[in-house]
């Protein structure tokens, strides 16, 4: 009973407390309308954190696996056939690759004949079946058994024989060969209308040259280091007392640092022993070294080096046998259509007796043999290509030379020529080159040169042309026909005839004009016909004083490959 009364009392007290609290709150709310100063504090650094509440995931119920009610039955039927298994035999594919015509027809023969009793034979054969080496042989003979002066008195003929071979290795090749040249001719430079020479029989001469050569060079020319070195032995003689032996060697090597910069060296050695009527037991030695540096990039090329020469020719007032000259050559293409070039070089030009007699075969006994000293030669010009068809080059060169050689008629025998030298020769050369091509149908190559000589000891630049002009036209209207029309002209040539110690006769030769026409028609792959016409204007051209060339001269024949 006591506990129940007690609980009631506590309940009553609690109710009275709640009523009093609510009344107090009402009173405070009635007083809240008053405006009072308030102050609020905002804390930015306070972070509210809430406790994490675990999330409840429900597991996806596993669906029942569908079961098929259909039944699949396969019926296998056996076929009893007695067939053997297929036999597969792999074989390499056989394909006939086309071969070049040069490989199919290694042999070549040309036969012809023309006026002036002129037979022509040119035969070649190359053995190229082996992989490690190849070699070839050539025989050529061309004769003119009558000539422009008294028939057979002005006859001449040429014979050449060549044997070449090459041995190929992995990184280099060894090459060599044997050459033989024979030139037989008459000294026919006399007046056939002179009654005193009605039965005159001129002297004959035969120039024989035998040459043995060998060398080695690398195969891959795109390597950083390239080389080519070789030597030769040459023996020369004529029907008189002139003879000359030569031991020579040439070498070249270059090294490329990159695609633009390289360095290299050229070497040339020539040891000769000439003999003639006026001298014998002479040793003419010549050794030249040309180191250089080359830079080329974006249409620009510069080559700078030096020519270092030792030669032992004996001349008047010679200071030394040792020579050093600069050599600079440069060109720069501003565009394909226009570029400039320039160069400066000094050198010693090697001249042997064979060099002189190849230039003028009617050479007689000479007192001395000298190299030509090129003290300097400077050149400059422009060049370019227009429309990928027309190429041009215009330039000028000026030089100073010592011991430049010229030819004059001998006082003892006007049918022969002697060598004369000038100690100080100034030369100016203006040159023009022009090229034009239209596909394979037409090609033109033209060159023109004008020379001005200022000699110190001689009256003129004897038997050297004042100007030269050359025009070469190649016309191919169809694949089977090739036509060549060429023109070669010279002018301003002066000769000298000495009648005595005080009497000198200068003779200016007429303009040389030689028009040449060639045609070659291919009948089939093996057989073709040709025709050649020389000096079609029938002019009495004289390259050397008193020696007119043949008039209109033609040769026709056939060519056969095998």
From TrEMBL:
Coarse class of the protein's main subcellular location: membrane
Keywords: Cell outer membrane, Membrane, Signal
GO cellular component: cell outer membrane
Endpoints of the signal sequence: 1-29
Localisation: Cell outer membrane
Presence of the UniProt keyword Magnesium in the record: no
Keyword Signal: yes
Protein name: TonB-dependent receptor
